[in-house]
Design goal:
With about 160 residues, this protein is α+β, with helices and mostly antiparallel strands. Helix content is about 25%, strand content about 15%. Helix 2 crosses helix 3. About 20% of the residues are buried.
Length: about 160
């Protein structure tokens, strides 16, 4: 091993990346500044994102993404204010979970593209990650075109025990 030499790699900034005594190539990892109130259980549970799940096997999540798990119920939040839509969604998810439904379809609408999409569509992830809802949800994904495409989402609920 006496004849080995360290690799000289170029970093993204174009500087030479060496592991010399100065450790100049090591940069601290920045963490996003997410308010604690949006994270369920103050960060103990990983927040859900569109198309991902934490406590769900890959095969089931793929089936959800592909629309192979058919929705048992649906809610249309078109035309509601954000606060009213949030309340309706929370109530709907509670009733669906209590009645034993597994997959539900939440129709948010696409919103105006020049404004970055609709308010309800943008806020859905935050509402689903609220502690009252997060305890019932395994994952969610954008719906297939025949179910609403970019303006709707499949939500997979946990089994009631």
């Amino acid at each position: 091993m006496a004849d080995t030499k360290p690799l000289n790699r170029k970093s993204k900034r174009g500087k030479e990346n060496s592991l010399g005594p100065s450790f100049s190539a090591i940069r601290p990892i920045s963490t996003p500044k997410t308010p604690v109130k949006n994270l369920p259980d103050a960060g103990l549970t990983k927040p859900l994102e569109v198309g991902t799940a934490t406590d769900l096997d890959r095969r089931t999540m793929d089936r959800l993404r592909k629309g192979q798990l058919r929705p048992d119920a649906r809610i249309d939040l078109h035309g509601l204010t954000a606060s009213h839509a949030c309340a309706e969604l929370c109530d709907f998810l509670y009733r669906a979970h209590v009645s034993g439904q597994r997959c539900v379809l939440v129709i948010t609408g696409k919103g105006l593209s020049r404004e970055g999409g609709g308010v309800i569509r943008r806020e859905l992830s935050t509402w689903l990650n609220a502690p009252s809802n997060r305890s019932r949800i395994l994952g969610f994904a954008q719906a297939q075109p025949h179910d609403g495409g970019g303006g709707a989402f499949y939500v997979l609920l946990k089994r009631r025990r």
